[in-house]
Amino acid sequence: MLHVTNGDAAAEAIRSTGIDGEVLVWRDVLHEGPVPAGANALELREIRAGFLARCGWAERAQALSALAARDERLGTALRAGEELVLWFEDDLFDQLQLVQVLDRVAAGPGRSRVTAVATESYFGLLAAPELAAAFARARELGAAEIEVGRAAWAAFRGEDPRALEALLGAGTEGLPALEASLRRLLEQFPGVTDGLSRSERQAVAALAAGPLPFEELFDRAQRPEERRFLGDAVFRLYLEGLAQPPAPLVAASEDGEVWRLTDLGRRVLRGEADRLAYGRLDRWLGGVRLLAPSRVWRWDAAAARLVPPVRG
């Protein structure tokens, strides 16, 4: 039996239950950086390792080795027909990992029994008896649920994000947390009026009343989230992007620990300016590369739909 989960805290919590089986941590921040559709498994590992290294989150060789070992362990389990127990929470971070794993299951020999464990809390915060009870309630995933996962992974990696809208329109039955997570992903596209993702907008709004230390800013910016999914390293990456010249929206103290709004940041927050009219943008969301000013998909929150790039 192979237990697959989202991180070290969850893995240690699962091990504390004494449940049989090995625990595999599925390490990757898939909602950040390139996950292009044209890359095979080997190429995707290279792309992801390079991205993680550029962010300063890991040495490239170390990241590549870890991703290869992770992939090989899952592949071995699928070839051997081991039972898979998937421990993924209801937030965007976890649900993208879940559909990547289900895509691997869909491409495999199809002999493994696959079950999913769900709770209303984060696994790392639960006591061993609570996790054991959740494991006892694990739900088996059949061909239909695995196919939804495969389709979601393909849509996430596509160049045209309207595939995500189409998938949501068709429904994600069998994977109850996936719909809200994919909608949250769409909110990470730049807004039609201010050019900010929802995460960036929440960060800027949290500074409206005055400067804040990083940890307090991180907490305040996450409070509007229905399900928190950001780590502090990713959040700091967002702040550093907002602070980029020539038109920064935020600025940090000399030690980088206290953050404040700039005048332009206040104007963008009030809806008087579009961030993309002033600053550069080169960012990936899954398979979509956002390049300002000519290749930017935007999110219209009022209409709850994507707006294609303006051509010409």
Unreliable runs, pLDDT <50, ≥5 residues? none
How many DSSP-defined strands?
13
Mean pLDDT: 95
- Work out the helix count: 12
The end-to-end distance, rounded to whole angstroms, is: 55 Å
Sketch the major β-sheet: 5 strands, mixed
- The number of domains is 2
Share of β-strand residues = 5-15%
Your description of this structure?
It is a single chain. The strands form four sheets. A five-stranded mixed beta sheet has the order 2-1-4-5-6, with helices on both faces. It has twelve helices and 13 strands. The chain is of the alpha/beta class and 312 residues long. It folds into two domains: 2-186, no CATH class; 198-307, Arc Repressor Mutant, subunit A (Orthogonal Bundle). The mean pLDDT is 95. Helix content is 44%, strand content 14%. α2 runs antiparallel to α3 and α9 crosses α10 (214-222). It starts with a strand and ends in a 5-residue tail after the last strand. The protein is globular, with a radius of gyration of 20 Å.
